Amino acid sequence: MSQTMSPLGRPQPLSLMFLLGMGMASERSNCPSRCSCQYLEVNCTGQQLQEFPADIPLDTRQLILAANNVSYLPAVELSFLADLVYLDCSKNLLGDDLDFTFIGVAKLVYLDLSFNNLTQVTFSTFSHLLSLVVLKISDNPNLVAIEKDAFANNTWLRHLDVSRTGLTFLDTSTVRDLPNLRFLGLSDNLWHCNCSFLDFITWMTESNIHFPDADNITCYTPEGLQALRMQAVEAQLHFTCLTQLHKTDYVFLCLVGFCIFLAGTITAWLAGICAVIYKIHASKGEEEEEEEEEETAT
């Protein structure tokens, strides 16, 4: 079928639109094996994938890899998906090698890494996700550490879930300094309710953030506080930490007292020596004066 050509040999606008449409159709036809593709969405849920799928259309905005056996997310392949805003990698085998993984998907708004094998979250894990609003890292039983400044760059974060992990401690500033945070999941963790954790418990009771499943935000240790809700132990910790002294405190006070006693003893000894020396010099001066008076008299 012939088409109308411009004087420069280019297709007319209608033909050009047709060719562009064909190009887009061919691009979307490159759907990863065992995945289903719709407009701007690739869904690979429950396909027993061992690796990150290849041939993902570059204009994909929603990628679902839930319920597979993926143990590694390649940063380079992810960076090709520059328009990605939604990524669901829940129920996989992702471990602790996620630093700088998301450096090329700065537009990401939703990230689900729940039910994986994460062990820690550092500043480099999510620092490039400046648009992140929802982050789910719950149900990672080996997750035992979240660095103090882990979410320092995620100022748009509104929903954060760290429930059912191996966390025993979370620094208050890690979540307190998130200006848009409204939802924080903390239930069924191994919280160690000691004096170091008192500041976080106080922040919880005073903040306006919603804590879902609040009845299960309980202390795991020490034994005397086990299974008690955070709000219930706050007053007790205040009394224990602010009015009672621990063994280390007594040792410190004893050392301070001994140092003060020793310093006082040494000072008194030096003062006594100085007084004796002064008295000796004074008596010698008087004897010399008396001798001079006697010589003058004779």
TrEMBL record:
Pfam families tied to this protein: LRR_1 (PF00560), LRR_8 (PF13855), LRRNT (PF01462)
LRRNT domain mapped to chain residues: 30-62
Keyword Lyase: no
Positions of transmembrane segments: 250-278
Official protein name in the record: Leucine-rich repeat-containing protein 52 isoform X1
GO cellular component labels: voltage-gated potassium channel complex
Membrane topology: Single-pass membrane protein
Gene that produces this protein: LRRC52
